[in-house]
Amino acid sequence: MEKTVYSYPLHPDCPDLRRLADNPAEALLRAEADIVAAENTAEADRYRRLEDLEEAQQDGRGVTRRTFVAGAAATATALATAQFVTTSASFAATKTGTLIHVFLYGGLDGLSLIAPNDDPVLNRARPDLLLPDDSLAVGRGFKLTSAFQPLEPWLRAGQLGFIPGVADPRLSRSHFQAADACNLGGLPGETGGRGWLDSLVDTLGKGTAFRSVGVGSTLPRSLVGNNGAISLNSVGSLRLAGDDRYREATEKAIRGLFTGINHPVEESVHAGLGALATARKISAEPYRAAEGVEYRGVGFAFQQLAQLIKGGANVRVATVGMGGYDTHENQGTRDGGQLYRRLNELAGAMAAFFTDLGDRAADVTIMVSSEFGRRVASNSGGTDHGHGGVVTILSGRKLAGSLLGTWNGLDTLDSGDVPEYNNMFNVYGSVAQGRFGLTNAQIDKIFPRMKYAPMKLYA
User: Fold this and answer.
1) Which of 72, 111, 143, 282 reaches 20 to 30 Å from 60, CA-CA?
2) Is the dihedral of CA 260, 261, 262, 263 positive or negative?
3) What is the distance between the alpha carbons of residues 20 and 7, in angstroms, rounded to a whole number?
4) How many CB atoms within 10 Å of residue 435?
5) pLDDT at 51 over 60
6) d(Cα 135, Cα 132) in Å, to the nearest integer?
7) Is the dihedral of CA 420, 422, 428, 429 positive or negative?
């Protein structure tokens, strides 16, 4: 038996037309209009703040930090904003550690990651995508894809867990709209275009310039806001523009220009120069991972974070993005399937990262999420956009179990989708609360348009 739980706009690539209109053409038109409106709103939020900050940070002589900061294009843009303000803490290990949010773009098929054993609904709906017998055993009658074999030691140690049926009523099947809401912690109009991790940084208080880091060529929406996260492709890419022969003299000149000007940008510039010096020091020698550790693929992003954490940069929150999860075909549950390969790459990277950190891993939590799940039924060897997904947690702390949260089965679907059993932002909040020891009231401020309901995730 199925029932429609929510009514929201859908992505035209994968529509459930009954949700929008009786006429298919009108339904597609409405879906496209909603997508365009969401894109316009998000872009306006993103660039309006950048322009306002650019104007505010001029020192009267027409000089902004954009004229002297370089590296990757996204790093230059980030350094041109207020990212180095309120950075008074020293470079040292944090008392409450680091939270890393890994976002899988495209919509992960959660039922190809974990699934209930011998489920009659799955046997009928996706006989070609059932997890095979070599899958790993997970609590409460679930099994885990063998693609996650690299993380089996942490599964056995009680530090790897999964939350099924994760969604929010405000999430549509549009990649753009759903990913935006997941990274903001709600709709743009509810959050003011500010990322949920940036709001979390407010709650954590002051820190170093590296307290908020996005690894990649662009700053993710989850870090956009008041605290000016650093975006970098590599630690060594955070550097001043120009000839290396004149870099020391250039830095000295910049420091002189922005000293004694009685302007808020002065603190930002000096902190920024300090951060550049720290990055230069950390990356002065080729990075040497722990013995036996090899980073591949998306693991390169984790290597940058390992370099910062082991170098004492005091990273509080960080992000890693990984694409390739929009698996409409050739999804596969074994080596050779594109989803299997992506999941195996991710698991290998996370395992390498925790191994490389050694004892420092006790202070780190990784949370992996995606914009939505996929439909229960397979379609030509793949799956279409759906609703309830899976959140993965790899924690230095022991978890309350390997299968976490509420799960009421697949007997009643949400129009062919996995239902929402666990609200996405309650999951986000509970992961952050357990990592940083925050109160319910503090989490409420991060997600202001919903009443936070904590979940039991940690032992």
Assistant:
1) 72
2) negative
3) 8
4) 26
5) no
6) 6
7) positive
The answer to whether the beta carbons of residues 185 and 196 sit under 8 Å apart is yes
pLDDT digits (tens, 9 = 90+) for 320-347: 999 999 999 989 888 889 999 999 999 9
Nearest C-alpha neighbor of 164 from the set 322, 327, 374: 374
Backbone φ and ψ for 160, nearest 5 degrees, come out as: -120, 125
Q: How far apart are CA 110 and CA 418, in angstroms?
A: 9
For the chain, domain boundaries: 16-56, 87-234+283-446
Q: How close are the terminal C-alpha atoms of the chain, in Å?
A: 36
pLDDT digits (tens, 9 = 90+) for 143-152: 999 999 999 9
For residue 248, report the phi and psi dihedrals to the nearest 5 degrees.
-60, -45
